Amino acid sequence: MSLMSILDRHPRQLETLGDQRAGLEDMLKDMKRKDDILPKLMTSTGSYEDLFRKEIAKYNHICEEISQNLQAQGSFLEKSHNNRTYMISLLTGCIVSRLKMVNLLPPLTLRITEVIFSFASGLAHYTTTFTVICVIIYIRLKCHFRS
């Protein structure tokens, strides 16, 4: 997976988890605001323990959703840590690779310079040889037409 796609995916996941958490917080606040146990206590003829169990049970579904959100956040943090470790090792590998390349450049540059010098020397030799041959042919032709 590419580094940019990992980085791009993380903010979206983080935003989704944040939105879920904010929705749960709003829902819990709304439930708490609407919940008025006092009239029920005044009119209840049964056990207060049963009444409290029943009232607390209303919050079970929100507690389950909060628990799932916390698990998702934990999973996200663990994946983020693993991805961060992966990205660090990937970047470290890139840096080491670049350093190796940088260390190879001076010898390669020297070798290329030597090859260019050899080509230039060879070219100068063949150019000189060609010039000498041309002069010899010219002199022979000149002598040939004089006779």
What does this structure look like?
This protein has 147 residues and is mainly alpha-helical. The chain has 4 helices and no strands. The protein has helices at 3-34, 38-43, 48-57, 60-146. Helix 1 (3-34) runs antiparallel to helix 4 (60-146). The longest helix has 87 residues, at 60-146.
Category by helix and strand content: mainly alpha
The H-and-E topology, N to C, reads as: HHHH
* Low-pLDDT windows of residues: none
Silhouette? rod-shaped
Number of strands: 0
* Global Rg: 42 Å
Query: What is the number of helical segments per DSSP (H or I, 4+ residues)?
Result: 4
Topology:
Elements: H1 3-34, H2 38-43, H3 48-57, H4 60-146
Helix pairs in contact: 1-4
What is the gist of this entry?
Helix content is 92%, strand content 0%. The chain has 4 helices and no strands. The longest helix is centred in the C-terminal third of the chain and has 87 residues, at 60-146.
Question: What features would you highlight for this structure?
Answer:
single chain, 147 residues, mainly alpha, 4 helices
